[in-house]
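User: Predict the complex.
Assistant: Input components as received:
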Amino acid sequence: MISPGYRLAIFACAVYLVGLLIYAQGLTGPLVFDDIPWLNSNTLVQIDGLTADEWRAAALSSHSGPLRRPIAMTSFAANHAIAGSFSPWPLKLVNLSLHLMSSILLYPLFMAILAGLRLLPNTESRRLVAVTAAAIWFLHPLNVSTVLYVIQRMSILCTLFVITGLSAYAVYRQRWAESGATSGQVIALGLWLLVLTMLATFSKENGALLPFLVLAVEVAVFRGRWHGSVNRSTYRLAWFVLLLPLVAVACVLVFVPQYLEPWFSGREFTLWERVLTQMRILWFYLSWMIFPNIGEMGFHHDDIRLSTALMQPATTLLALLAWLMLIVLAWVLRNRFPLLFLAVLFFLVGHSMESSILPLEMAYEHRNYLPSIMLYLLLAYVVVQAGRSTQRLHVSYPVIGVLLILSVLLLVRVQNWSEEVRLAYSNVSNHPESARANHIYANALLRRAREDSDHQLSKQEREETLLVARHYYERIYQVDNRDLAALVMLLYLDSVFFTELQTQVDWRIPIMELLADRRLQPTDWNALDLFFDFATASDEMVTSTQVQEILDLLRARYPQSADVMQYQYLVQSSQQKSDKDLLLTLDRAQELAPSKKWIYLRKINQQAAVGDIAGVYDTARLWLLNDPQRYHVNELKTLFSAQREEQYPTDD
Amino acid sequence: MTRAMQLVLSLAVGGVILALTAWIYWPGQAGPALLDDATSVQVIGDVSAKPELALDYIRGDSSGPLGRPVSIASFVLEKIYLGDSLEVSKRFNIVLHLINGCLVVWLIALLLRYIATPCYFGIALAVGALWLLSPIQVSTVLYIVQRMAMLTTTFMLLCCISFVYFRLALAKDVISIGWLIAAVFSFLLALFAKENAVVVIPILVLMEALWFQFRDDNGQTILWLKRATISTVCVGAAALALLFDYDVITASYAHRYFDFHERLFTQSRILWDYVGQLYAPDILSMGVYHDDYLLSTSWTQPASTLLALTAWALVFLVSAMSLRWKSGRYAVFCLLWFLVGHSVESTVLPLELYFEHRNYFPAIGLYLVIGLLLAAFVKRWVETIAPLLVLTSFYVIWLAMGTSSLVQVWSSHPMLILHHLNGHPNSFRANSDMAVQMANVGEFDAARKYSERAYAVSYTERVGDQDIRELALACIANEAVDPATFDTLGIENSQRPFGTVVTLHTLVKLLQDETCPAFDSLRFANRLQKLFLEENSVATASPNMYMGFALLENTLQRWEAANQYIDLMLDAVPDDTQGLLMKLHFVTALGKVKQADTVKSRLTDLQNQGKLTVSQQQTFALYLEN
C-alpha cells in the first residue's frame, strides 16, 4: 500500500512530466520581438566565455532596465558560451528548467502559508492544495508567453529568486509563529532576504518588490503571531511599511503630478490615462487567470482601448468600483477567507511596479507571472474543498479535471508557439485589432517570402505570401492610419514587389503628414530605421530628392536627435558626399549623443579611410571617455589590434 | 558541517578566488612597459648569455638607498630561467600577487582566530578576495617595476605571519626562536626588496599593543612584553625626533615643484583619495599618472585641504576614544595599519605626490576593517555568517568587474595611453605619452599638439626640454625639422636651458640607431656646442646631460667635443666610473696617451676599491690590453 505522501509525490511527478512534455514541443519555436535586439543583435552577449571581461561586458549589455539586469544577461551569455550560438532550443530549455524550479519552490511556500492560516484539518489536505496550486501555476497557459519568450528569462529569474525568498520567509516565519526565534535567526533571515532581493532585482527590477511581498504575506498570513501569541506592534509596523510607498505615490499623484508627467513624454498616453487603463487591464489579467481562454491570450494587447477618463469608456469606472469592492470585501472577510485577502493583496502588490505609474506599455501577460501565484493557491484551495465537499466524487477528481483542462489549453498554446508564422497567425486571430499582432504576422510572412533561400515556396506561393503580408499591412493602416511602420512597409512592398498595381497609392504623402505632427514612439523610430535602410540601399522606393524631403522634415522637427543625424549620414553616404561632410554629420551626432556606439564606429572608419590616424585616436579616446562603465572596452581593444593590420571593425 | 568539510569548502572557495583573480589578470600580460620599467628592468641585458653580469645588475640599481637587490635579483633570475619578455615579467607579477593574496588570507585568519571569531577562515577569505580583486592593485600588478612593492609586501607579510606565530607561542610561555628568526629574516629580505618595508616594525609593535594587547593565553598581561613594547615605541619616537632635521628635509625638496609643507597638506587629501579608491573605486581616474593632482598650498588652498585635515583629526579623536574598548583597539589597529603603511611614502620624504601602488600593503588594513565588522557581527549572531559572506561576495564581484575592465585597458598600450589622457587631461606624462604615440603612428602635427599641451600643464619643464622632445618626436615620425628650430634651441633659460635628461638620451639613442637619417644631427650638435662649449657660454647642465651631449658627439665621431663635455661632467662627479671610461675612450681616440694613462690610473684605483662593475671591468680590460 502506497502512503498518501508518496501517492501525492507520484502524482506531482506525473503532472510535471506531462507539463514538460507539452512544453518540449515549444522549445524549437522562434526567437521573437525583444529577443532580437537584446540577443541576436547584441554582440556583447554573444561570447565564447574565455576571457573574464567578456562576461562583465555581457552582463551589463542590456538597456532594458536601469540596473541592466546583469544576472539574466549573464545567463544568456552562458547559453551562448556553451552552445556557441543563440539557437532557440537551449535558450528555451533553460527558461523551462527555471520555470520548473520555481514551481517546485512554490510547494514549501504554499505549505507554510496553509499551515500559517490553519485552513485545512491535516497535512495531507495541505499537501494536496499546495501541489495543486504549484501545478496550476506550472501548467497555466497564461505563462506560455513568459516561459517560451526567451528574453522573459529576466522575469523568470526574478520570480525564481522572489519565490525562494518568500518560501524561506514563510517556512521560518511559520516555525517562529509557534516557537519564536533568536535575534540572530531573525537577522540572518533578513540578510538572506536582502541577498535574494538583490539577486531578483539584478535579474529584473521588479525583484525590488520582494520585501513588500514578504510584508503582504506577513499581514495576510502571520499577522504578527510570534511564539504562540500575537505581537500587535509587528503587525502594525508591517502594515505601515507596506502602505508607505502607496501613500507616497498617492501624495505625488495628488500634490505634484507634474513631477511624474514628463516621464510620459515619449508615450501616446498620459499618466492618468495609464493609471485609469490599468484598472481595466488588471481585471483582464484576473479573468485570464481564472478562465484561461486562450482565444484572448496573445503576445500583444495593444488593442485594449485606452481609458481617457473615468467614463471613457464607462468600464473604467466600473473597473475602479469593482476593485474598491473587491478590496473592501477581501478586508472585511480577511478572517473568514484569508486566502482571498492574501491573493488580492499579493496580486496588487505584485503589479504595483509594472501596472501603475511607470510609463511602460499597457499590458503584457508576463507581468502576471509572479503576482498570480497566490491566486492559484486560492483556486487550488477552492477546487480541493469542492472535491472534499462532494461525497460522491474522490477528492482528487476536480483537481485532475482542472489540471487536464489546463494541460490541453497549454498544449494548444505551446503548439502555436512552436513555429513563427503559426504564432504570429494565432496572435493576429486573437487580436485582429492589434497593430503589433498584424505587424508581426505580416513581417513573418514577408520574411518567409524574402528569405526563402532553399526555395520551399513556388513562385506563385511566394507571390501569394507577399500579397497576404501586404493585406495585413494595409489592414493595420485601416485600423490605425497613424501607424508609421505599416506605411513604410506598404511603401516598400508597392515599390519593390507590386509595381504593377492598378491603384497605386503614394504612401509617401501620408508618411510625410504623419512625420509632421506625430509624437514618434520607439516603434516609429524602428520604422524610420527601416525606411532609411531601404531608401539609401536603392532608389526603387523613393528618389533621392524625396528622401531628402523626409530628412529635412525630420531635422526640422527633431534638431537634437542623433537618430536623425544617423539618417542624414546614411543619405549622405548614399549620395557619395565628401568625407568632410560625412565627418561633420558624425561630429554633430557625437555632440548630440556622445554615448552612441554607432557614431564612433562610423567615425573611426571614416577617419581611417582618409588616413587621419590622429583623428582615429581622438575618436577612440572620446568613445572611451563617454563609456564610463567600459561596456565597449573589448571592442576598442580590438580596434587597436585591427589598426595594426589596417582593418577596422564595422557596426554590423 | 564537520571541520573536514569546512576545510574542503574553504579551500575550494580559496581556489576559486585565486583562479578568478588569475583569469581576470591574465590578459594584462599583453600590456606595455612603463616609466621606470625602462631604467630598472629593461636595462638588464642578456644575463642568460652573460651570467657573470648578473651581480652587476643586482648591485647596480639606484631606485632606493639600499639598491633593492632582492627585487632586482628576481628580475635577473626571471630573465635567466623564464625568458626575457614583458609577458614573462607581468606573468611573474600576477603569480606573485596570487601568492600575496594567500599570505593575506593566512595572516588575517591568524589574527581573527586569535580574537575567537567563528568562521574566521571564511572571513579571512573574504578580506583576501577584496584585497586581491581591488582595482587599485592593477597599477601595481601590471606595472613590472612594482615587483619591488609586491615583493617587499610578500616578505612583510611573511614577517607578520612569523611574528604572529612567535606571539602565539609566547602566549603559552614558549619563546619560539625559529619564528623569531623567520620574522627577522623576512624583514631583512623585505627591506632589501624595497625600503619602505621598514614600516613593518611599527606595525608589529601596534599589533602587539592593539591586537594581542600584551595578553597570554590565560588573559594575563605579560608585563615584560608590555614594557618592552612601550620602550620600543619611546626609543623609536626619540630616534625619529633625533633624526628629523627640518633643514635637511626642506632642502631635499629643492628639485621638486612643491615644498615640504605643500606635500604634507596635499597628502592629507591624497590619503582620503586612496581610501575612496579602495572602497568605491573611480576607474576612470585610476592609472600610473597622477602628476596633475592639485597641490595644496596652504590649509585652505584648496578648501578640501582643511576638510581633509579636519576629517583626519576627527578620525584620530574617535580612534583615541575607541582605545578604551577591546574591540575599539582592533579597529584602531586596522586604521593605523593603513596610515603607518603610508608613513614612508606619503609623509615627509620628497617623493612624487601620488601613486596607487603605495596602497599595496596599507590596503590590507582598510579591508581588514570590513573583516572586523563581519567578525563583530558573527560573534554576536553566528547565524549571519553565510548571508554576510554572500553579501561580501557581491561587493567582491563589483570590485572584480572594475578590475577586469581596467586590466583590459592595461592590456593594450594605445588604450592605456587614451585612458590616462581621459582620466588626467592635465597630466604632463599622459600628454607626452600621447605625443609619442602620435609620432609613432606618423602624426607629427598631433604629436606636437600634445607635446605643447604637456609643456603647458607641466610644473617644471623648460622650453628647451619641450624643444628637444619635439625634435625627438620629429625623428620618431620621420618628419623634416625646420633648420631654424636648431638655431633657437636653448635661447630661453640661457643659464640652464635643459633639465630633462631622459628626453635627450632618447633623442641621442634614436640618432645612434639611425632611426631618422634625414635629421640634421650635425646642426643640432653644433647648436649644443655653441650653447655649452663656446668660450663665453653661460649655459650649464647636469652631469647626465653632459654625458648625453658627449654620446651625441661620439655618434658624430667628434671626439674633441665629446671629450670637452665629459670633462664638464667629471668636474661635477670626478669619480663617476662610466664618465671615466668614456673619457678614456675619447682621449684614446684623440691619441692623447698621457691623459689616457692618467685616466687608466684613476680607473685602476677605483677597480681596486671594487667600484667598477663586472661589465665596466671587462670594458676597462680592453683598454689595458692595448
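Chain A has 28 helices and two strands.
Let me know if you want any component modeled separately.
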